[in-house]
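Preliminary data (for renewal application), arginine complex.
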Amino acid sequence: MKLWGGRFNKATDKKVDDFNSSISFDARLYKQDILGSIAHATMLGKAGIITEKESELIVKTLKEILVDVENDKVTFMVDAEDIHMNIETILIERIGDVGKKLHTGRSRNDQVALDIRMYVKDEISAIKEMLISLMNTILSMAKENLDTIMPGYTHLQKAQPITFAHYCMAYFQMFKRDFERLTDCYKRTDVMPLGSGALAGTTFPLDRELVKDLLNFSAITENSLDGVSDRDFAIEFLSNLSLISVHLSRMSEEMILFNSHEFSYVEMDDAFSTGSSIMPQKKNPDIAELVRGKSGRVFGDLMALLTVMKGIPLAYNKDMQEDKEAIFDAVDTIKMCLPVFTDMLATLSLKKDNMRKGAAGGFTNATDYADYLVKKGVPFREAHGISGKTVFYCISKDKALEDLTLQEFKEFSPLIEQDVYDAISLETCVNERKIYGGPAKEAVEKAISNGETFLKSI
Ligand code: ARG
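Predicted structure:
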């Protein structure tokens, strides 16, 4: 018989059991569920709602069940519906009537809210650790490449020269924000809902503060209706994971491009590439492609949860059972992507000569040439025009700006002197951009040291 079977005269249809049951996916909340029940039972004993002896027996047995689950000695039943009723059923099987007291003053509605918050808290911490590894890897790459000049792009057209270090540190900023967002999301997840009951709290004098402390939460929920039906923290979490996916996907896209024969700026390690079943010459960047592709799953998970939640009247509705697979899938996806992506970066080899050649072509110094004229007294808009005309001339001659003779330069402006060559050299173009946040070596060194300070502070 079902734990809730009292008012029913018929067994549930088999199809309904299969449809309604969530044990196939919420079994992975067993630990949170048992730890939550241990805290609840401890509190029931301390508050005198059940006897200390009953409380101790329940706690002891729950601990044994936890060990048994972890050693694969427990079979969960579909007709016990979900992890909460499976654990409770096993408890009652083992200790009989005393086990039936565990659910006093509690509902599965606040129980599942608790479990999922505990789960999200754990996963936030785990994912933050993975982000730290990724940020460390990016910092090392930046440190080694302060002088590695490459073209920066806008519209995927060569724009201005930067360094690979500066490029890396752009991603550092993104992952740092992702990290901070998770820290922020943690605060709103770290609120303990037990005591909300089914929707309207309970008449039992539960000690919510004690349960909060036993389970390491920072606060308790303020409203019982909201306590059972709030999944904002999970939506926020999936939105944070979606942004991580955006950043991973953007960097993957660039690694795929840079790894292509056309760019040849980087080469992925053999251990992080795959071959073709037909084309013997191929070495494909599948890892980066999969990371890029898996972003779609994470966005889908976020969209699924938003859609599940948008029309639900207060308080709990069974629709909310649909939250779990979305959350689990996003967590699994991100936890697979982050470490493999980090190692893929760590093993990347750079083709620095090609990067430099890339920066030397495509007139990436045309802005600096215009700025040179500005420093000689030409208004910027006019200097822009002169630089454009010079570029046009160079294209017709198949030359770079720095290939022009001083004579040729003077055709465009008599103000141009020998010092133009230094002003438009790649080194000058990069290292004169000393502005805070810019690509000059000294500015990137500052960014790296800020990054190190950040990593030490967390
Ligand atoms: N398995 C359910 C879920 O995941 C637990 C809560 C069920 N509550 C209920 N009143 N049916 O949401």
